[in-house]
Each structure stands twice: as C-alpha cells, then as structure tokens.
Amino acid sequence: AHLASLYLRMGPPKAAAIGRLPAPPPYSHEAAARELVSRGMPVSDVLEVALTPRGVPPPGSAPATPRPVMRGPRAQTGTYKELSPLEERAIDLAFRKFDKYNSGKLEVHSFFSMCASLDLHLNAKVAKEWLGHLNQVDGLTLDQVKSICTGILAAQTPAVRSCTAGKTLTLTELQASEEYMRGAFRKFAPKGTLGPYELRALLMSLDFPDVHCDQFDRYVGEWLMITGKVEEQPVINVHDFISCINLLVDVCQRHQEALEAEEE
C-alpha cells in the first residue's frame, strides 16, 4: 500500500520510459499545507499529516519504510497467493506465542495482537472484512489464521509484502508495485486522466482504510486543495495519483497509531 510512497521517496527516475509521462519534480505537501493554514484554513487531520511529513532519508541511503498500511479483500494484486516458508514459520511462532493457554485457538483480540506483532496492522473495518463470516465466538484455529493471513498478504503490493516479512526492499519489488499502481490507475483513466469522482472510486477499489467512513469524499477534497486543484473540474494524472496515495498512506498510519494509543 505504501509502495507509491516509497517510489517517490527514492526520487523519480532520471529518464521516463517510452510512452510514459516524465516524472515531475518532488511535490511538497508540507509547503502547500502551510500556505493554506496561513490563509486561515482550519487544521484537519489530513492537513496535520501534510504539515508533519515523515523524514526523507539522505541521498544514497535506504528508502524510508514506514509500517505498511493493510488493505482489504477488494484489493487484488495478482501476486503469489500462498505463504512463503518464512511467512508460514513467522505465523506459526506468533500463533503459539499468543495462544497463552495452549488451546489451539486464538480469541479475536489475540488474533489482532498477533497480526500487529507480524506488522499486519489492521484498521477495524478492514479487519472485520477479513474475518468475514467466521465463527469468532469459538476462536480461530491455526489453519484459519493462516488462511486469513494468506489473503491479507496476497492483497498487498510486492514491496509491502516484503516489508512485513522484514526483508530489504529490492528495485524489482518497487518496480512491480509501481506498475501495479499504474495498472490500477489505467483501469479508471483509459485516456490518461481522471476526475475527483473517479479518483474516489479508484481508492475504494484499492480498498485502503476509509478512515472518515465517507468513501474518501473528505480526503480527496482536502488533497485537491493541498495540491492546488481547485478548479471546477480538476484533472488528475498518474503522478497526481501517486502523490494522493503517498499522503493517504500517512493519514491511514496516523489514524491507526492514534487508535492503538487510545487502547493502551
């Protein structure tokens, strides 16, 4: 989910591939947000995130890797659907750790704690979608947990999946994740651009956590103001879309961190 973010934080490629728009210079959400606040715009959660961006690594260092944002079951990446041996072993160990009474089952709250320990941080609504119609009263068996985790991981981009496994990101994974995001954009923008309504539909199809529970209406509206797209019919290209994803990932992370802090 945060692969587009990683792509931009690494910096745009020096030469654009044939048939693609050249990458624009890095865009500063922070500067734009400060300008809006100076004009009297109230500081919302979206503006707050834009005003306090995560640090960008120095040139030549590894890309910034904030913890992954888990997407829901509507997100289809086409990546491998099975658990790798490393992922399966990590789930086995985590299950035994959180099965405190050796019952062979995890209560739902223990399942969420187990997921968090594996860097699978689930928004409440997304978690409900993944659990589906499973009988949660009797607890979840190891096989059920593996099945759920397989689905969760298969719905993430290659780079996010690599991050959750604690691996060092490779250029191949970043490129595969970028191409996935571009492919998703093309489905909603066959002519190369889209409007706000289509952007919201695209974000919903990617099944990012809808933190405001309004089908991304508020988020897209504020992002458009931050990016200066205030005309009646703003035009959004693929680089704008990546910018939108970058900020959305940080917004989702901050919301999840705030919820977890309240529960402690």
Output the number of helix runs.
12
User: DSSP strand (E) fraction?
Assistant: under 5%
Radius of gyration: 19 Å
Structural class by helix and strand composition: mainly alpha
Distance between the termini: 26 Å
- Overall, the morphology is globular
Main β-sheet: number of strands, strand sense, barrel status?
2 strands, antiparallel
Helix content: 40-55%
SSE order, one letter for each helix or strand: HHHHEHHEHHHHHH
* Number of β-strand runs: 2
Ranges where pLDDT stays below 50 over 5 or more residues in a row are: 1-26
Side by side, the strands of the main sheet go 1-2
Task: Look at the structure and give the mean pLDDT.
Answer: 81
Protein described:
- The structure is a single chain.
- By secondary structure, the chain is mainly alpha-helical.
- Helix content is 53%, strand content 2%.
- The protein has 12 helices and 2 strands; from the N terminus they run ααααβααβαααααα.
- The protein has helices at residues 3-10, 29-38, 45-51, 85-98, 108-117, 124-131, 142-154, 158-164, 171-188, 196-205, 217-226, 238-263; strands at 105-106, 140-141.
- Strands 1-2 form a two-stranded antiparallel ribbon.
- Helix 1 packs across helix 9 (171-188) and helix 4 crosses helix 5 (108-117).
- The protein is globular.
- The chain starts with a helix and ends with a helix.
